[in-house]
Amino acid sequence: MKKSTLLLMASALLLPAVAVARNVKTLDGGVAMQRIDNQKIAKNSITRGQMLENRAKASQNRVAKVSEISDVIYEAAGEAKTLARSGAATYAYWGQLVELNYNNQISELVMGEDGEVYMKNPISQYATDSYIKGTQKGNKITFELPQAVEALNFQGETIYMLVSMLQYSEAKEWYYPCNTDEAAALGLPKIKDELTLTVNEDGSYTMDIDEDKTLIPGMIYSDNLSWTGYSELASEWKEFTDTLNPGPSENAAVDNVSVLYGNMGHYAKIAFEGDNVFVQGICPAQPESWIQGKRDGNKISFPSGQYVGEDSDYNCYTYFVGTTFEELWDDYYEELYNFYYYSEALTFDYDEATMTLTSGNKDAMLYNTSDKDITYLQAFISPMIAKQPAEISPIPEKPYDVVFFDEDMEFFGYSCLSFELPVFNIDGQLLNINDLYYKVYVDGEEFEFDVNEYYELDDNMVLIPYNFTEEYDFIVDGSYHEVYFYFEGADEIGLQLCNVKDGEIIGASEIVTVNLSGVESISDGNSNRIASTKYYNMNGQEVSNPAQGVFVKTVKYEDGSVRSFKAIKK
Questions:
Q1: Are 430 and 265 in contact (CB under 8 A)?
Q2: What mean pLDDT is predicted for residues 541-549?
Q3: Distance, CA of 237 to chain centre
Q4: What is the pLDDT of residue 281?
Q5: Comparing C-alpha atoms, which of 307, 315, 305, 308 is closest to residue 268?
Q6: β partners of residue 140
Q7: Any idea of the CA torsion for 230, 234, 238, 243, to the nearest 10 degrees?
Q8: CA–CA separation, 260 vs 546, rounded Å?
Q9: 347 CB contacts (<8 Å, ≥6 apart)?
Q10: CA 154 to CA 134: how far, in whole Å?
């Protein structure tokens, strides 16, 4: 039995399909979208299947009809325009409707014959890689709706995801597909179910949506015509013209460096040509991309807003951005978080003798979805760039903060091992994170993760890559990891970090073990112990004895930190 699920809100869905921005408070009490959370494009059938199961449970008796529904999913034909799309959208997540802003999403309009226009992924936060078809007349492009964009199989029945216009009901404070029986019962007038774009004089495109947002495009189910929670509140497409920095000349000397931040780091390269300084792989997700800075004495500055490439996981264009930050307190989550302020450049102190670049303790670099607006995928606090030694020990440090939970076995049928994995060797030098793997031992024996129990795996696994995640049984957030288990009765569990080259283990850490006998949750001697565990339902109410349904498990540790886990009990 699995521990996480996707939720419907009323009759609606739950999973963000592209990048999701976390709400953080600003100094004036407003809300700013800064962090792009770790929700990536939903592509696998299990995710879609869970979505449909939840839809069915939430809307068994719903009746709603429109006069015509087409199951045609169009293939584009014509000249493709690759564009950058920005705007605002909604999705339903954990029982709440969430609004988010997005920047520089990779998008496409295809110009066909006789004025035909095809729009790829019309609902920005639900990627289907399919098109809706419209017609251009003058400076207007009109898409007659509803149109199907995806076909899903649910219990032998084909259900289509449709794009349709949604009307807002003041009485219900909710959106409803237009021209349905349900919309009529709510007193909503019949309208033309069509979406229009305006072609602007500068060559950009704007989705025509009124400021009051009473009529917006969204995604609905074909069988019961309920809203999924996905919609567009504003959208604009512009030609994308940014290009990658070509890097230094072929004759430039290139050195290997470590980029260090907090308890993490990654490998990169640096080159000096006169006063120009180039770094390749400053953002680990873009290892081939260069950024360029300028040396002035013992200072090196890298301008913000340098384009570093397309991110296929998040379907967006990405940038290097320098910032300062301060810690603020979040009353809701009861934790500190970092709030970032854009800087024109990120400046390092440079030690030429050791080839070390050191930033300030309130500086940060962001792997960002905009050249200026702060909507980041990754943040790197107080980064330092240092030349790599010629030879280092291949033996990794041992894992730490290892905590085992098995109190969920009775309620939910699984246990969880959480732990931190270092990226340094026993001498404190950075290892290549791409060469690091971990092993789990149960009662002294290597544990094999079997595809028959871990359904998201393609093959059985003993060695788990450092950053491996399928967003389900293996969770990664920087150095923090969670792995879920479905066995009972073990007395001891162990964890080991390995350095692997060409399929061979060239160095391995000590094995960290925890004793499981008769203990609900236990950690190794250096770990952060649990202070309290609480469960909450989807309305935010604390539940003492979780019964059937979906819950949020919140664990508070003795150092005051908090972790939340998603759980479902059937």
A1: yes
A2: 65
A3: 22
A4: 98
A5: 308
A6: 137, 198
A7: -60
A8: 42
A9: 299, 300, 301, 302, 322, 359, 360, 363
A10: 29
CA distances 62 to 170, 181, 225, Å, are 20, 10, 9
Query: Per DSSP, what are the bridge partners of residue 437?
Result: 465, 498
**Given pLDDT bands bounded at 50, 70 and 90, which one contains residue 313?**
confident
pLDDT, tens digit (0-9, with 9 covering 90-100), for 91-101 = 876 667 788 89
Q: For residues 186 and 408, what is the distance between their CA atoms, to the nearest angstrom?
A: 44
Q: CA-CA distance, 108 to 75, in Å (whole number)?
A: 13
Q: Tell me the three state secondary structure of residue 184.
A: helix
DSSP of 124-172: TTS--S-EEEEEEETTEEEEES-EEEEEEEETTEEEEEEEEEEEEETTT
User: pLDDT above 70 covers what percent of the chain?
Assistant: 78
Residues with Cβ < 8 Å from 243, sequence gap 6 or more? 307
Look up the pTM and report it. Answer: 0.77
Q: How far apart are CA 48 and CA 15, in angstroms?
A: 9
Distance CA 513, CA 447 (A): 13
Token couple for 94 = 């954990």
What is the spatial distance between Cα 254 and Cα 38, in angstroms, rounded to a whole number?
Answer: 33
Dihedral over Cα of 285, 288, 292, 293: its sign: positive
DSSP state of 378: E
Closest residue by Cα to residue 95 from 40, 36, 54: 54
Kindly calculate the radius of gyration of the chain based on its CA atoms and give it in whole angstroms: 26
Residues in CB range of 245: below 8 A, 6 or more apart: 278, 289, 290, 291, 292, 306, 307
Report residue 118 as tokens: 């095809």
CA distances from 95 to 10, 92, 138, 311 (A): 8, 7, 42, 29
Give the torsion sign (CA, 64, 69, 71, 77). Answer: negative
542: helix, strand or coil: strand
Higher pLDDT, 339 or 544: 339
The phi, psi pair for 365, rounded to 5°, reads -115, 145
Burial of 1 (0-12, 13-18, 19+ CB in 10 A): exposed
Distances (CA, A) of 513 to 406, 481, 533: 15, 16, 23
* Tens-place pLDDT, residues 284-305: 999 999 999 999 999 999 999 9
Kindly report the number of other CB atoms within 10 A of residue 565's CB atom.
Answer: 21
CB 219 within 8 A of CB 18: no
Structural domains of the chain, ranges and CATH numbers in brackets? 20-239 (no CATH), 254-387 (no CATH), 400-527 (2.60.40)
382: left (phi over 0), alpha (psi -120 to 50) or beta: left
3-state secondary structure of 113: helix
Q: Starting from the edge strand earliest in sequence, which strands make up the sheet with 521-523, in order?
A: 474-477, 480-485, 415-420, 400-405, 521-523
Hey, how many other C-beta atoms are within 10 angstroms of the C-beta on 384?
17
